[in-house]
């Protein structure tokens, strides 16, 4: 970790820096930079803003004049969801047409990879039970609601 402390000195024409090393915390380096640029309006011809920004740099990329991103929050997620939905619809429509025309299938048989899609809810349930089952068992044991108290067989 590096910490740089800025000290305002209106008379410092050239900046000076001192390194204090890692005194109390290992791998923490502390520097003290004394310069007139640390003073409000010290290094610029522009007036000091009366309400400074709360975040340095004004936010994410984009490179616009305001410093803010030109993409509205959440728009990328919305676009991805729309693209995925269009992909699924295209997959099912083209698959159904091919299965109907080429293999002369009808009804439920026109669903591409029918066995996969019909077993998917059960596969998701099994995955959740496998993933969260040990966690639920641990919570029950910690709460004293069973899940680990067995009696010995005599």
Protein described:
Its main location: membrane. It is found in: Membrane. The protein has 154 residues and is an alpha+beta fold. The protein folds into three domains: 39 residues, no CATH class; 39 residues; 33 residues, no CATH class. The protein is 37% helix and 13% strand. The protein is built from two helices and three strands; from the N terminus they run E-E-E-H-H. A hairpin with a 7-residue loop joins strand 2 and strand 3. It is elongated and about 90 Å long. The two termini are 61 Å apart.
In brief:
The chain has 154 residues and is α+β, with helices and mostly antiparallel strands. It folds into 3 domains: 1-39, no CATH class; 74-112; 113-145, no CATH class.
Any low-confidence stretches, pLDDT <50, length ≥5?
Answer: 55-66
The general outline is elongated
Structural class: alpha+beta
- Report the sheet with the most strands, covering strand number, pairing sense and barrel closure: 3 strands, mixed
- Report strand %: 5-15%
- Count of β-strands: 3
Give the % helix: 25-40%
In order across it, which strands form the biggest sheet?
1-3-2
Number of helices: 2
Overall mean pLDDT: 80
Supply the number of structural domains: 3
Order of helices and strands: EEEHH
Question: How far apart lie the N and C ends?
Answer: 61 Å
Query: From the alpha-carbon coordinates, what is the Rg to the nearest angstrom?
Result: 32 Å
């Amino acid at each position: 970790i590096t910490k740089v402390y800025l000290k305002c000195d209106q008379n410092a024409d050239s900046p000076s820096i001192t390194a204090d090393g890692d005194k109390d915390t290992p791998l923490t380096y502390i520097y003290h930079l004394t310069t007139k640029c640390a003073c409000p309006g010290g290094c610029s011809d522009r007036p000091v803003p009366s309400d400074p920004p709360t975040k340095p740099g004004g936010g994410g990329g984009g490179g616009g004049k305001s410093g803010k991103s030109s993409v509205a929050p959440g728009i990328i997620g919305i676009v991805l969801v729309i693209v995925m939905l269009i992909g699924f619809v295209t997959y099912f429509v083209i698959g159904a047409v091919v299965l109907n025309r080429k293999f002369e299938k009808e009804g439920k048989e026109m669903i591409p990879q029918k066995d996969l899609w019909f077993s998917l809810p059960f596969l998701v349930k099994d995955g959740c039970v496998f993933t969260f089952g040990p966690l639920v068992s641990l919570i029950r044991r910690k709460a004293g609601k069973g899940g680990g108290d067995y009696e010995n067989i005599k």
